[in-house]
Specification:
Number of helices: 5
CATH architecture: 3-Layer(aba) Sandwich
Order of helices and strands: HHHEEHEHEEEE
Radius of gyration: 20 Å
Distance between the termini: 57 Å
Largest sheet: 5 strands, antiparallel
């Protein structure tokens, strides 16, 4: 029996390091944004709020249901943050923000290619469907991109902020992407 070490092709750490097509896929922004799913989801109108509010459980159980739905849609972490009144000037402002995060092999901030934006696409899908589900329950739910989602996610206990303001989790470090916050009046319990 020979003691020659075997080399498996999938055991290399960086299998795409010298692939120019992969580099293009990750790092080159699309010439036409209509070739991306992100613009399609971002520009999709939000649906109507069902006119009759559903019978829901306690805020603790409802919070757990929201987190389970987010996990079902693909979120790896979900947290709920209490929003301050100053986030909006309207008297009927949203009391809670639901934050969803996904693993990100590439940082979408510095990887503008279609492949580099996969975590953004995943986050948009999750927040679109989750906010639609909340509206179907008869409660307001609106995806807010101007809010500081990473700071709210840290406040909701998903991770902590590093010096540059990027969220860091125990499991994946800074290889996470926090989707836009879902602001809602669904009765929930804040984390963190």
């Amino acid at each position: 029996m020979s003691s020659v070490a075997r080399k498996w092709p999938w055991s290399k750490k960086n299998v795409h390091g010298d692939d120019p097509y992969w580099d293009f896929f990750i790092n080159t922004p699309p010439a036409d944004l209509t070739n991306t799913v992100t613009e399609l989801i971002r520009n999709a109108p939000a649906g109507n709020i069902f006119p009759t509010k559903a019978d829901i459980h306690t805020p603790e159980i409802t919070s757990q249901h929201v987190k389970e739905m987010a996990r079902y849609f693909g979120a790896e972490w979900t947290g709920i943050a209490k929003l301050e009144r100053h986030h909006t000037d309207q008297p009927d402002s949203y009391p809670f923000a639901v934050l969803c995060a996904v693993q990100a092999e590439y940082n979408p901030r510095v990887s503008p290619g279609i492949g580099g934006q996969v975590p953004v696409q995943n986050g948009l899908f999750i927040t679109f469907v989750l906010s639609a589900w909340i509206r179907e329950l008869g409660f307001r739910a609106h995806v807010e991109s101007p809010l500081e989602a990473e700071a709210l996610a840290a406040r909701a206990g998903i991770g902590r902020l590093e010096a540059e303001g990027r969220l860091v989790t125990l499991q994946f470090g800074d290889k996470v992407y926090v989707a836009d916050a879902i602001c809602t009046d669904l009765p929930l319990i804040a984390d963190g």
